[in-house]
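In this section we walk through a basic example: taking a raw amino acid sequence and producing a predicted 3D structure, encoded as discrete structure tokens. The instruction is simple. Fold the sequence below.
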Amino acid sequence: MTSGNSDDPRNWSGPLENMGDKERGWLTDSMRGTVPHVDIHQALREHWLEMWYQPKIDLRRKCLAGAEALARINHPTLGVLLPQSFLAGVDDDSLARLTEHALLATLRDWSTFNDAGFNLKLAINVPVSTLLRLPIPTLVKENRPQDTRWPGLVVEVTEDQIVRDMALAQEIAKQLKISGVSVAIDDFGGGYSSLASLKDLPFAELKIDHSFVKNCAVEGTNGAICQTAIDLAHRFGSVAVAEGIENVADLQALQVMRCDFGQGVLLAPPMPLQRFIALLNQRNNRPNASQADGAAQSRVA
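The resulting token sequence is shown next.
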């Protein structure tokens, strides 16, 4: 799933290898954190916070399966800032406020996608510390779309956080399930020694950390870890998601391993909501969203 260039480098939605100097420079500077720090409270007060969406691709059927919501700050002078520009050193209260805002925005955005004809299952990252501070199940129950087609929400929690207190994680997962929220274990691989404890956690997805996905086609250790994670997810009745797919060789290797879903700049980078909808309409040869009907089946280019 790719697209061409844009006058604004922040709106790039093509593969990494096709980036021009302008787009690559903006991405590199942002990832290196060379932009000034921005206060979360100010960003929320000034309405600078945006949710961008990175497509999740079904690697077997080669179609769009959902999207992950990612927070961005669209600063009036600094441009679009990645999380490392506003999460470094953030306190728990600020993180909770940011998470609540992002959660409610993602629930609202599902309706926008659905109105445009794309019934996508959305996912959002939530730190375990925030799960303890915020009544996430209640927030979802009170603010979820009142539409029978709503497929639910996926909450992604990093492996290193969730294995610290497995009993608590189990209880949180049960509460979330009642509200139509499933749990995904994010950045899997860092706590590789904790594999045995995962059998007690009702998780829906196992997301393989990008550091293992990278070069999994040529590095034996990375490939072995990816294959083990995929087999483990399937054994537990869940699905495996590869994060950070950057090249065709790794994509093909993951497909041979029978990985279920994938994300990464090779497939599509994160993009603003309306840009994403416009790209979906373009891929489905639909001139406008009002003519849309049914779920998206956007093919990987």
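Looking at the output, two observations stand out. The domain at 9-286 is CATH 3.20.20.450 (TIM Barrel). The longest strand covers residues 63-75. In the next section we compare this with other chains.
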